[in-house]
Design brief:
With about 200 residues, this protein is mostly beta strands. The protein is about 10% helix and about 30% strand. Strands 2-1-10-5-6 form a five-stranded mixed sheet. Strands 3, 4, 7, 8 and 9 form a five-stranded antiparallel sheet that branches. The protein is globular and about 40 Å long. It comes from Kibdelosporangium phytohabitans. InterPro entries: OxRdtase_Mopterin-bd_dom (IPR000572), OxRdtase_Mopterin-bd_sf (IPR036374).
Length: about 200
């Protein structure tokens, strides 16, 4: 008689290059805080609103006309799964910020469907953040945030807002949806900043 029950698999795969408390997965789970918005390309827009109220708006065609990049790397979910070596296509926020006169320290990211999250502006610049519209050579599906999501891979993935439609810049930090529910205000996976107080 076995002392280990059928189905017991022990600890999940742990890779030495993962942040603490994360366990390797090979799929791409879909987690959302509400219904999946369906946004057609012809009505999608992205707007950066400066702290002075100036608005800069790009349509889907505008976005595709901008220089694109193909960022790749690992992503980390607060629910403890990472996905390694992901490949995306999109536009660096550095390109969009070239048109914006701002000295703001913070941004609130707004999404179709009402989701929000907050980030320091410095985490959106210097090749750290993109508006991505393709994943692994396919258009980004609505379930994974299409037509366009934010990608800020160095923070937990809830900061990479799906269905993104804009940034509002401010001198003051304003917690977003998950942050007001007790998630960490910053969300660094290497420091295990999952919840308030971590």
């Amino acid at each position: 008689m076995s002392i280990v029950t059928r189905g017991f698999r022990g600890r999940r795969d742990v890779a030495p290059d993962l942040p603490p408390g994360q366990y390797l997965t090979h799929d791409f789970p879909v987690l959302s805080a509400g219904p999946t918005p369906r946004v057609d390309h012809d009505r999608w827009q992205f707007t950066i609103t400066s702290e002075a109220g100036a608005r800069h708006t790009w349509t889907w065609r505008d976005l595709l006309a901008l220089p694109n990049e193909q960022p790749h790397g690992d992503i980390h979910c607060v629910t403890k799964w990472p996905k390694l070596n992901t490949h995306w296509k999109g536009v660096s926020l550095d390109v969009l910020f070239d048109a914006v006169d701002t000295g703001a320290d913070y941004a609130v990211v707004r999404s179709y469907g009402g989701y929000t999250t907050n980030l320091p502006v410095e985490d959106l610049l210097d090749g750290q953040a993109w508006l991505v519209y393709r994943y692994e050579d396919d258009d980004l599906t609505p379930e994974h945030g299409g037509p366009v999501r934010l990608l800020v891979a160095h923070l937990y993935f809830w900061k990479s807002a799906k269905w993104v439609k804009g940034l509002e810049l401010s001198d003051n930090d304003e917690p977003g949806f998950r942050e007001t529910l007790g998630y960490h205000n910053y969300g660094d996976p290497w420091r295990e900043q999952r919840y308030t107080g971590d």
